[in-house]
Design goal:
This protein is mostly helical. The protein has 7 helices and 2 strands. Helix content is about 60%, strand content about 5%.
């Protein structure tokens, strides 16, 4: 079962839902009107490094190992499959707390993922020179987060065997 994968000490697993960091950073920049002050936030969090140092290849390698060893990866691009996996982790549809409220939460999550996908498509579709330059700047500044996201897509496919 999926839970058996995480039976080694220390036990437990985290769930993470990832989507294109370029669009995440681009959306933040547009909504807040500010440029990000911290680079590669996801890699920093997974590798446990603070904001006072530069992210390195070694930090990226640590982040990938943490993601591989402790996280079940979900994605809004595959929201239905992600939700199916998460439900299987907690015992399918027959777990304590499977109520109307849980159904509403799942529906709300699917709606949020749909909005994220639509926002990603809208941002990708707006090919103004300003957007292209901002996306280029983001790719340069947050390269490790982008690499981690690309790696996570393969990890999502690899983890499918846990949920057959």
């Amino acid at each position: 079962t999926a839970l058996g994968v995480f039976s080694n000490q220390p036990p437990g697993a985290f769930v993470v839902i990832l989507h294109d960091p370029v669009n995440v950073y681009l959306d933040r920049r547009k909504r807040k009107g500010l440029e990000e002050t911290v680079d590669n936030i996801l890699v920093r969090q997974l590798a446990g490094i603070g904001t006072g140092s530069i992210v390195t290849d070694e930090d990226y390698n640590v982040a990938t190992q943490v993601l591989r060893s402790k996280f079940v990866v979900g994605t809004c691009e595959e929201s239905a499959e992600s939700l199916r996996r998460f439900l299987k982790m907690v015992g399918g549809n027959n777990f304590i707390g499977d109520t109307d409220q849980c159904a509403r939460e799942r529906h709300g999550w699917n709606e949020k993922c749909q909005k994220i996908k639509e926002n990603d498509q809208a941002l990708s579709g707006k090919k103004s020179n300003r957007n292209l330059q901002m996306a280029k700047d983001i790719r340069g500044k947050h390269l490790y987060d982008i690499m981690l996201y690309e790696m996570s897509k393969g990890l999502f496919r690899e983890q499918s065997v846990w949920f057959e």
